[in-house]
Amino acid sequence: MRTHAKLAALLVAVAAVGSCSKKEEAAQKALVAPPPVAAAPLKVGFVYVSPVSDAGWTAQHHAGREQMVKALGAKVSATFVEKVAEGADAERVIRDLAQQGHKLIFTTSFGFMNPTLKVAEEFKDVKFEHATGYKTAPNVNTYNARFYEGRYLTGMIAGRMSKTGTLGYVAAFPIPEVLQGINAFLLGARASNPKAQLRVVWISTWYDPGKERDAANTLMAQGADVVTHHTDSTAVVTAAEQKRKMAVAYHSNMARFGPNAQLVAVTHHWGDYYTHRAQAVLDGTWAVAPVWGGMKDGFIRLQGLADNLPPELIELVKARQEDIRAGKFHPFTAPLKSNDGKEILATGTLRDAQLGAMNYYVEGVIGKVPVGSK
After folding, report:
1. Which pLDDT does position 63 carry in this prediction?
2. Is 174 helix (H, G, I), strand (E, B) or coil?
3. Per-residue pLDDT for 299 more than 70?
4. Complete DSSP assignment for 294-357
5. Distance (Å, whole) CA 250 – CA 237
6. How confident is the model at residue 25 (pLDDT cuts 50, 70, 90)?
7. 3-state SS assignment for residue 202
8. Which of 18, 263, 300, 309 is the most exposed place for a label (fewest CB within 10 A)?
9. CB 116 within 8 A of CB 141
10. Contact 254, 273 (CB under 8 A)
11. Interatomic CA distance for residues 111 and 373, integer angstroms
């Protein structure tokens, strides 16, 4: 019996030792086990039509990209390609970004629309966001801003501050977005100066500081004492500063390029949108939902107001701005006529579909819209 008892005790002891050994082994494995692998950041790509600079269209998109990176931190990895020509070059760049593993790509110029759609057809697992376009696909969304809202308000300022009653506008391409801006600017000017008129010079490029400067000088030589632009650089504001004329900046606050010239700037803000859409991809909730945001959405702001603006003018503009934000006022409100006398709108306001098809100048804009568009 004692032998059996000793054997039983020995077996218990061996079992205990074995159990301890397994615990120690498990503990050692736990100490040397690799930490859980963190999820790879979402690769986000941006395609810019012009160089990243201190101010302008691309500068504002670049600032939006940086805001997104700051907000989402290690969850995203964002790259960009600048100075990308619209057309075949854009298609190559967009495809390269998709091949490099970017799962969300923002293409930030109107002429990138068809190249974006073509690449999207090849990379169905990639989400694409195209700025200012109107064509979508199952993995292509569009986003745009109601630039004309800010244009109308700055037109009110330009019309009041002009001494000649002639304003000048340097424009890129005769697409609806640009025509909306031209017409809204003149309508705003006539709200404060019923006799105001607007001259336009088209340069057929979004970014060419030399052409932009020459166009501004041409307009000022034709009597315009306030000039503005729908182009990407600061050249128009700089030209006005050099000629001691006035300017309305576009895209960015350009006061430091025209400290005496700039009356006000229409500025664009994309950071909140970029952050929201990247987070949607991360969450698996991204969907095609075209956006056309305005002042109430934070896409458009007025900044850089000059110190010499009359206080009553500022108050008038602020009141009209609040009406726009509240939906109480629309810049394109009847009666509206084209500059060749045709009735555009007898009652009400232009609908979005009508705005998207705009191909005319309103009464007060001098000249004819060039034939053809991008």
Report:
1. 98
2. coil
3. yes
4. -GGGTSEEEE---TTS-HHHHHHHHHHHHHHHTTS--SSBSSEEBTTS-EEESSSB--HHHHTT
5. 9
6. low
7. strand
8. 18
9. no
10. no
11. 11
Exposed/middle/buried for 288, CB within 10 Å: 0-12, 13-18, 19+? middle
Give the tokens for residue 121. Answer: 């057809």
The pLDDT value given to residue 39: 79
The Cα–Cα gap between 247 and 137 comes to: 40
User: Could you tell me which residues come within 8 angstroms of residue 24 by beta carbon, excluding any fewer than 6 positions away?
Assistant: none
The tokens describing 65, both together, are: 């990209």
Count of beta carbons in the 10 Å neighbourhood of residue 212: 26
Give all domains of the chain, ordered by start, each with its CATH number.
42-145+270-293 (3.40.50.2300), 147-260+299-355 (3.40.50.2300)
The H-assigned helical ranges of the chain are: 2-32, 57-72, 88-99, 113-122, 147-161, 176-192, 209-221, 235-242, 271-283, 311-325, 352-355
* Among candidate residues 160, 87, 182, the one with its CA nearest the CA of residue 309: 160
Q: What is the pLDDT of residues 117-147, one digit of tens each?
A: 999 999 999 999 999 999 999 999 999 999 9
Which of 231, 344, 356 is CA-nearest to residue 292?
Answer: 356
Of 265 and 32, which is predicted with more confidence?
265
What 318-324 contacts at long range (C-beta under 8 Å, 24+ apart), as own/partner pairs, is 320/152, 320/153, 320/156, 320/191, 321/153, 321/295, 324/149, 324/152, 324/153, 324/294, 324/295, 324/296
